[in-house]
């Protein structure tokens, strides 16, 4: 696991600034504290920070082929590298190391751009081929590892694992993209391929980017998508057996390492399934880590302990204060752009704990997206069932009217929030789903933003992100479609970003077997009816795991990594949120409606309404501005 950076002259062979390249590289020291390396030649500079996982004695980067005409910098793991190495040796390639990085070099020589289709793993890498004057960037299929890039006005192309590596380049504009602000306050993160800045981009999951000297633009190309191709009919018992076989194989492929390896264990279905499979694949006790909260309302450590005892793991638990709110500025520095998922706080802490014991940890991320585990899938399908009975021409005016006149009741259980339900029913599936996943609905964002900012958006709305993905979806099944939307947005933009930054902050590698692309492809072919059945998500996943986990684990109420946001913002963070949300620098950006912000703070802190999500989102936006040196001078008139 590593951090990579680079500078490429698209206009020729100008000298690369070594000091600048070194500064870019050192911003990511936490991603690879073991060692670093730079390579410069006319028109090109590569930088690399290394966290050694496989072949500890060699594999330093940048790594070259035999005549040094091909170089690579690589972040991630190629799990099938040994098989590929043997295939390439049989084709005449000579290897100097036993690491997966060198496989990329020879695979490029053998298969060119198609090499990425051979790789099974999590990765972002860049290849330089001096003979063809070609720079090739690639990101793994699900977006587990990040890649950021920008084309500068002077024709220099820069890239890096994290956005912070690009921000040290003085000629990179920090002009904020108003569309990204709209996206952030709708989703809680900035979805691919945009970043918060107009001039910088993320390489989308499952995409490559090829550049040659003389090019004037960058055009990413998709090489993979979730197929959702139905399997031949199977009985439920056959499906359960096949699922466990595919799961066990995916976990086994992710357990290769030359350093201590363990797993996160929350006591939920996904992490428990990973630990159960690991325990059956090794003769040594599995190292497991979990965190407990000192408030029983947020603590699920007893379930983690139950699984640890069942599989006799080496289990480590640390208790975290539920009022662990001192990480706000730390998180802003980690994520480089606005990021509003408050579960980043306990995620940071569990990575901190795991790193004390292991260098590599397996996690259960991806289970909800694969098997329709989120409650919102259940709500979306219930709403879709109503939509299927009434045509849009009737639903839109009827439920649209009811949605407008019905009082708002965010304080009530969801089943009694008729206003939200009526609004969702007046829309089509994609619009209704967007309405359900938005952290701040359209009506709230409209009030939050200033008149000037809404004009600057020029009619852009965040739903266009989902509309774009839906237009390219390989399925028209309603449940599969919303799963596909999450796999393209929420998974890489929120979940995987959260885990990557939190783990890399502690030089910990996290692997996600449930997002092994072969496993994802197979699961996508299962019928929706076995994923969401009788209002229960993960149906087939849970029934297949019955021989391995107790019903207490499989069918308990899902908790997740939640924190008491509403109480924080009325209590210990009361003054901080008021100061941050109403500070002149934030207001001078021209983005926000001051009267709306003041009303939100007053209503929330008086207990009249719960605006915790809105206020937390603004608080993290303010932290982003401060941490990145942004101010009214940097943003006013530019957003």
In short:
This protein starts with a strand and ends with a helix. The chain has 30 helices and 17 strands. It is of the alpha+beta class and about 650 residues long.
Question: What can you see in these coordinates?
Answer:
Helix content is 43%, strand content 14%. The chain is of the alpha+beta class. A 6-stranded antiparallel β-sheet has the order 2-3-1-9-8-10. A 6-stranded antiparallel β-sheet has the order 4-5-6-7-11-12, covered by helices on one side. Strands 15-14-13-16-17 form a 5-stranded parallel β-sheet, with helices on both faces. It contains 30 helices and 17 strands. The radius of gyration is 24 Å and the shape is globular.
Q: Would you count the extended β strands for me?
A: 17
Mind summarizing the main beta sheet? Answer: 6 strands, antiparallel
Radius of gyration: 24 Å
Sheet with most strands: strand arrangement: 2-3-1-9-8-10
Percent of residues in helical segments? 40-55%
Give the percentage of residues in beta strands.
5-15%
Give the helix tally.
30
Q: Tell me, briefly, the overall form.
A: globular
Q: For the residues shown, what is the average pLDDT?
A: 90
What is the terminal separation in angstroms?
Answer: 36 Å
Q: Classify the secondary structure makeup into a structural class.
A: alpha+beta
Low-confidence stretches: 411-416, 631-639
